[in-house]
Amino acid sequence: MISEYFLELNANGLYCAAGDFYLDPIKPVQTAVISHAHADHAIGGHQQVFATAATFAFMDLRYGKNAGRQKLTLAYHEKVPIKEVLVTLIPAGHMLGSAQVLMEFEGVKYLYTGDFKLQPDATCEMLKFTKADVLITETTFANPQIKHPDQVSEIEKLSQIPSNILLGAYALGKSQRLIELINQFCPEKEILVHRQIEPINRIYERFGFLSGRYKLYDRKSIKTQNNFIYMVPPFTFHSYSKAINLRRIFASGWKNLQTNEQDSLYISDHADWEDILLLIQKVQPQQIWTLHGNGNHLKQYFADKIRVKILN
Fold first, then answer.
1. Is 173 exposed, middle or buried (0-12, 13-18, 19+ CB in 10 A)?
2. Which pTM does this prediction carry?
3. Burial class (CB in 10 A: 0-12, 13-18, 19+), 305
4. Could you report how far apart the first and last alpha carbons of the chain are, in Å?
5. For 150-182, what is each residue's pLDDT tens digit?
């Protein structure tokens, strides 16, 4: 029988009492299971942490000794008991090392997606579908009006721009995906990366998930018009608001983060409405619990067919 209180939100985050652990806690806790390394899911200071090897590599880079007192690395599909709960990490397709968390308790399977996507991505493990009784899903873009465009059509826009490009992107995950896409579909462009992106690239290369060419940025290069794409994290992108001889473009699934209608690049690392529905179809849950966004559209869509509970 499904336990309605198997997961509950409290001041520290999403808590599993049967296993006495948190999923992606927002404050330091005794035991944490981390789905992926983005800072809104993986913070430092936990006593005991379960995650994939790649997630720990990124946490070590960001937090150093504060990445976790006891770090327990889990391979995908490896089953480990945490108190009364059997936990398995399954690829989520969001970024390198990202995982869905399958939790088995008293004969019921609860699947926490973390952040996920279904679009192809050469820089991470693709999402694996698994059946569960309860699906705990992100709803970042869970709106019937949102459909992510084809990533190849989007990235090929860059080939139509003759001037140098200042390309804003999150340093972890999005930048590496863009490097691979640009090298494959805009090979005439030369990629210069910001100094904060380069060490993350090295981790991707160590895990065998980045092969595209790029160089570390230097100021002399960007002053020359030579089909350069200068890839920078958000804070640097915004500091170049008055840059001349550059086309400013920010890669995101959010409309409000686009520079303007002409210079848009809609590439998201989250699932859109149709992909969320496809995931639900594959998982075949009896119940859906929603997080990280607006779950009301799913609640209305499924009505009396599947129970939808909004956790946040």
1. buried
2. 0.96
3. exposed
4. 23
5. 999 999 999 999 889 999 999 999 999 999 999
